[in-house]
Amino acid sequence: MIRVEGNTGPAYFREETLREGTVIQSIGFDNVNRRLYYAQVIQGGRKLPGESAPVAGDVRDLRGDLAITEWTLGADAADGSGTGSVTGYMYLRGFGHGVSFGVEPSGSSTYLWTEVDAVQDIDDMTSRGKRLCRFKFASSATPLDATNASLQKFTPVPGSSNNTASVDPLNNRLVVRYDAGGMRYRVYDLPKARAGDFSTPLVEVAEPAIPVDVNRYGKPSFQGYAVAGSYLYMLRGNAYGKKQDHDDNTATPDIVISPPGEGNTFLASVDLNTGQLVKSFHSKAGYTLPFREPEGLAIQIPKMADPGVYRLCMGFASGVQSGQRKASVYYKDSLIQP
């Protein structure tokens, strides 16, 4: 497993410009074809083909309209940092918020597993996917709608909500996070899931709480997950300067739960064999970013010839100005034996 301890980690990419100026929501690697994908809510003021007028950003979020940016990886430097460039993008309408998505290589192509059929949350002005879908990434300015007949749609857990996906590239498995009276995870054989067979999950565990000093860090928001082998990794945290009511007392002022230069980013590992929390720690990776919000977790295998050596990569939204956000990725690669 990855050693999830120590406050900092090396930067793989820092302050890169993507298709949209919104914060990233999640990341995912095609380790075979050396591609990195980012999910974002479509930025406000953009008018897509077939739309009569530009659409505001909060409306995009409520509708579940996402942008996927494809970043083709170049050579890695000796210090582990990477090079690359934007090589494509897609727009998805009516899908969800993009907290996590799965990446499945297939020959020279890449297929994405995402939430779909967005259910609107008017109170929070956002949306979450009711089901999952699978589609081939194909760069285009023409949006892919949730109603498109070409989409493969799945309902892994009938009656559930808030469905998202991730792919374990070590064991070729699909991971589903869903709400069924509480957040839970199921792990499936990927070829069976692709064929629509969700009858026999390999693992099912409840999402455990993590220990946090609420007087100092509040209740960090869930920001992503990834699975490698027998371990589930979870990411929590908020943007610098985030305020939160920490004690449910309206007479007590809200506190800053993510202080600049420190933040409230937490990484945690869970043993999928037992469902028990193994380790949780506060991370200061990327602490010098002027704006820093943890967004997305993914497994990268730098060399497919040596799949046992992998990285746990954390996405961070950065960039000083709202509407001109950048993307940064930091990682941990120190392995310990379970």
From TrEMBL:
It comes from Streptomyces uncialis. InterPro entries: P68_RBP_TagC-like_beta-prop. It holds the Pfam family Phage_RBD_prop. This is P68 RBP/TagC-like beta-propeller domain-containing protein. Residues 82-330 form the P68 RBP/TagC-like beta-propeller domain.
